[in-house]
Amino acid sequence: MPKKKNLIVLDPMRLSDVYLAPGHLIRRSQQIAVAIFYEEFKGHEVTPVQYAALIAIRDRPGMDQRTLVNQIAIDRSTIGSLLKTLEERNLILRVTPKNNQRIKQLFITESGDRLLQSTREHIHRVQERILAPLGAKDQKLFMEFLSRLVHINNKISRAPLKLASASSESKARA
User: Fold this and answer.
1) Alpha carbon separation from 111 to 61, 89, 114, 116 (Å, rounded)
2) Distance from chain centroid for Cα 111
3) Which residue stretches of the chain have pLDDT < 70?
4) Residue pLDDT, tens place only, 96-113
5) Fewer Cβ in 10 A, N or C end of the chain?
6) Which domain holds residue 152?
7) Rounded distance, CA 123 to CA 121, Å?
8) 3-state DSSP helix/strand/coil percent for the chain, to nearest 5?
9) Is 27 among the domain residues?
10) What is the number of structural domains in the chain?
11) Is residue 121 part of a domain?
12) What is the pTM of this model?
């Protein structure tokens, strides 16, 4: 006869437990971070993910859509509409290289670069405001723990971050 595993009997979860659950708190933190972003970026008509995409495209000109998905950890099903919006706003260009008609390389436009340059103080304020309730020591500790949680759990994400080295990117473009 097989041995029965020791079962732990848990009390039913209560709403007060939800308020203290890590997943719930992380989701609420994301809502707050996005709200702060939109307050600081009022009038710029850009989302946090679009902003990250613009930075990645500026920093790695010529990358393709799949590389961008990996670099900013965005779901593949949403990248097409994100890029279409950025292209329609003349913030990026999508260029089909002559040697590979299956991909489109991404480049930031002057307008896209101007947006990034003109909002440097805004993004700085976003980061400051998100962490403002914590003292300097706690901010550092919080960021270390948050980075560790994200890094360790990256592989189980729906859209894991996959960093490519600069040399592998240049080989892909060649």
Assistant:
1) 15, 9, 5, 9
2) 22
3) 1-4, 165-174
4) 989 988 899 999 999 999
5) N
6) 15-173
7) 6
8) 60, 5, 35
9) yes
10) 1
11) yes
12) 0.85
Residues whose CB is less than 8 angstroms from the CB of residue 162 and which lie 6 or more positions away in sequence, other chains included = 70, 71, 73
Alpha-carbon gap, residue 111 to 113, rounded angstroms? 5
Tokens of 72: 């900013």
Residue 81: both structure tokens together: 């509409």
Q: What is the 3-state secondary structure (H, E, C) of the chain?
A: CCCCCCCCCCCCCCHHHHHHCHHHHHHHHHHHHHHHHHHHCCCCCCCHHHHHHHHHHHHCCCCEHHHHHHHHCCCHHHHHHHHHHHHHCCCEEEECCCCCCCCCEEEECHHHHHHHHHCHHHHHHHHHHHHCCCCHHHHHHHHHHHHHHHHHHHHHCCCCCCCCCHHHHHHHHC
